[in-house]
Design a protein that fits this description.
The chain has 303 residues and is α/β, with parallel strands linked by helices. The chain has two domains: 13-100, Alpha-Beta Plaits, CATH 3.30.70; 106-302, Rossmann fold. It contains nine helices and 14 strands. The protein has a seven-stranded mixed β-sheet with strand order 10-9-8-11-12-14-13, with helices on both faces. Strand 8 (164-168), helix 5 (174-182) and strand 9 form a beta-alpha-beta unit. The longest helix has 15 residues, at 143-157.
Length: 303
């Protein structure tokens, strides 16, 4: 641990991989469950579609730093309902580097998100972000994050401009980075309830050439932090889960400027009506919507 906080650099060590077949629905659930939060160190989950001709048959590879104990393996197998799968040791390999090799780049609106393994294939004209696999959510590979990036691009393409932007539940910081690149003069605040996320965001800022003072970082439960108080925000982003989004509706409304917007994600299509209703009670109306897979991104305007 450094003087400034935890050092999350992963050293080269013994690495292990568990491979299991999963359905697409199970793959989607991986980014939403807190099932594996107690694992230390947190494993990296990589899901892939080995055969495009069989769209519901996916594979999950779980990378561990050190040999996982039997309880961990049993918990993961129970999660996917499969007692099989292969566990193997990866000799002399950095677990994060191996897992990143399977994270294909994604394109969302103006943005191109990649790991170091694909840094040499950035499309001309794209706004590129290098986001490595990490403990924080939001590498851009889940539909919610991709949808938010595309929606941010759509807002900018429509001529929307914001002086202040808050990214509540920032994860890796990717959405805050997108807002900063689209509206470089805006004051950006990025918060997360998990203190582990903030060193990840700082590292990602440095890796992407974003000045340390360009985005204010804070650990906050909901909007309980001074950086989110005072002058309200023209755009509030919250890519979390449906339950917290509903519960946080009064708090997020309180930090949104009159005429401002809230972008919400992390909800399933089946939960969308309840989330929208919670914000309509706070004098918001639906302004825009897009959907990636089963995951909608909604934008609401404060009236």
């Amino acid at each position: 641990m450094s003087a400034d906080g935890p050092d999350w650099t992963v050293q080269e060590t013994e690495s292990w991989k568990l491979s299991l077949p999963v359905s697409k629905a199970q793959a989607d659930r991986l980014t939403d469950t807190g099932e594996f939060d107690a694992f230390e160190p947190t494993p990296v989950f990589v899901v892939s579609e080995p055969d495009p001709g069989r769209p519901d048959d996916w594979q999950m590879d779980v990378y561990f730093e050190g040999r996982p104990d039997d309880a961990w393996i049993a918990q993961i197998r129970a999660f996917v309902g499969n007692d099989g799968g292969a566990i193997e040791r990866l000799d002399d390999a950095d677990w994060v580097t191996i897992s990143q090799a399977f994270l294909e780049p994604i394109r969302a609106g103006r943005f191109y998100v990649h790991t170091a393994a694909h840094a040499d294939a950035i499309p001309e004209g794209a706004v590129a972000f290098r986001i490595e696999a990490s403990r924080a959510f939001g590498t851009g590979h889940h539909e919610t994050t991709r949808g938010c990036l595309a929606m941010l691009s759509s807002l900018a393409d429509a001529g929307r401009s914001f002086d202040r932007v808050a990214d509540v539940g920032t994860g890796t910081g990717l959405l805050a980075f997108g807002a900063h690149l689209l509206w470089p003069d805006a004051a950006i605040v990025a918060t997360d309830i998990d203190p582990v996320a903030l060193p990840v965001v700082a590292e990602n800022m440095a890796a992407n050439g974003i000045a340390a003072d360009a985005i204010t970082l804070a650990v906050a439960d909901s909007t309980d932090h001074p950086s989110l108080r005072g002058e309200p925000f023209g755009l509030v982003i919250a890519n979390i889960l449906a339950g917290p989004l509903i519960g946080m509706a009064p708090d997020l409304a309180a930090i949104t400027a009159p005429g401002g917007m809230i972008m919400l994600a992390g909800l399933l299509a089946s939960q969308e009506a309840d989330v929208i209703a919670a914000y309509q009670e706070q004098a918001f109306s639906l302004a825009d919507r897009r959907i990636e897979g089963d995951w909608p991104v909604i934008v609401l305007s404060r009236t």
